[in-house]
Design goal:
377 residues, alpha/beta, 11 strands
Length: 377
């Protein structure tokens, strides 16, 4: 057992002149202030990676930059699942007694620190080095293939996917830190520029600058503690070309494992934060986990099921699709919002219920999965 005692989230979007270390610093300052702690209260540090600062020892680079001397330091690389994997590792460290307070931090100037083409090439490297990367596939192309198969298998439509983009934008409208807040309609999504059929630009998350940080503690200290009851991982095939299935990718098994370890069932979940790099990602994860019937997540979104006052509030900050995606910190924003929701500090976005939350992230092309179960103290 461990406790999130502080969280810090920058706004996402364009941060001119700010580096990876600057954004990590800003997020860390916010997290420590939220926890009511000082730098020397931290005894362990875990961070993600940065494509704009690809240092082999980023955790100790940041420790030096920020002026802390942790007894444990670690950097993790697991694609989009990295943010929740960092938290899981911190949770295990605290639960084992190896650390009392762990700083988890990630940040990146992905929007202003690299060109569009460079970003495309870097992310494309998650493909198989022999059978995929040489053929020029990009991350949107992989997910476009997955979306086409999903539509074939379950009868989902492009309009169903669009409903999820509309939902995320409506949630982001209430968060001043979101990169995109202007409302969009299903028609807007369907008419937006094609990226990788059937995905359009509004089906895809943006590239952002930003940062996010947490403090995990062994005790429920400070004014805003939330308990991490369980965490789990599942790793299936790394590459699309090696996947046995494009519709059963491990998300369901991962969430079930975390829920089982927490002594909880899906019916207990009052709030969800689910990775949404593309609308198809969100649809697939919701439906495989069991938070929506197959092929029906878009319908539920349209009916208000995932609204703040709905049956299952979802990604109330706007998710990757609208709050933005700055790399590792992108998914961590889901947890920062969950921390606010579970401590009653989300203002106009506040969910009616959020006492038990399920979070899930995936890395690569639906290849690595991490689930977290959080409970109010």
């Amino acid at each position: 057992m461990s406790f999130i005692t502080g969280s810090g989230l920058t706004r996402f979007g364009r941060h001119e002149g700010k580096s990876t270390l600057d954004l990590m610093t800003e997020a860390t300052d916010l997290a420590l202030a939220d926890a009511g702690l000082l730098r020397n209260d931290i005894d362990a540090l875990i961070c993600g990676y940065s494509t704009t600062l690809p240092h082999l020892m980023l955790s100790t680079v940041f420790a030096e930059h920020y002026g802390i001397k942790p007894s444990y330091a670690h950097a993790v690389q697991l694609g989009g699942a990295t943010g929740f994997a960092l938290v899981m590792l911190a949770h295990l460290l605290v639960a084992s007694g190896a650390a009392k307070r762990v700083l988890v931090v990630a940040g990146e100037n992905r929007m202003t620190g690299q060109s569009r083409d460079a970003a495309i090439q870097v992310l494309a490297q998650v493909g198989h080095p022999v059978y995929e990367v040489p053929l020029g596939a990009t991350i949107p192309a992989y997910y476009g293939l997955v979306a086409s198969r999903y539509m074939h298998d379950f009868g989902s439509t492009e309009a169903d996917f669009a409903e999820l983009a509309v939902l995320m934008r409506s949630h982001a409208a209430l968060h001043e830190g979101a990169q995109f807040r202007a409302p969009v309609s299903v028609e807007d999504v369907l008419a937006s520029r094609p990226i990788a059929s059937p995905l359009k630009v509004l089906d895809c998350c943006p590239v952002s600058d930003g940062g996010c940080a947490f403090v995990l503690s062994a005790q429920p200290e400070g004014p805003h503690p939330v308990r991490i009851s369980a965490a789990a991982q599942v790793h299936n095939a790394q590459h699309v070309s090696a996947a046995a299935s494009l519709t059963h990718v491990g998300a369901g098994a991962c969430a079930a494992r975390a829920l089982g370890d927490a002594g909880r069932a899906l019916a207990d979940i009052e709030h969800a934060a689910i990775y949404d790099s593309f609308t198809i990602t969100l649809a697939m994860l919701l439906e495989e986990i069991g938070l929506a019937p197959r092929g029906r997540s878009g319908v539920l979104a349209r009916e208000g099921h995932f609204d703040a006052d709905g049956a299952l509030p979802l990604n109330l900050h706007g998710g990757l699709l609208s709050y933005g995606h700055c790399g590792v910190g992108g998914a961590m924003a889901h947890l920062a919002e969950t921390h606010l929701q579970m401590t009653g500090r989300a203002g106009a976005r506040q969910a009616r219920r959020a006492g038990v939350s399920l979070l899930h992230g995936d890395g690569g092309v639906l290849s690595s999965h991490v689930s977290l179960v959080l409970e109010a103290v």
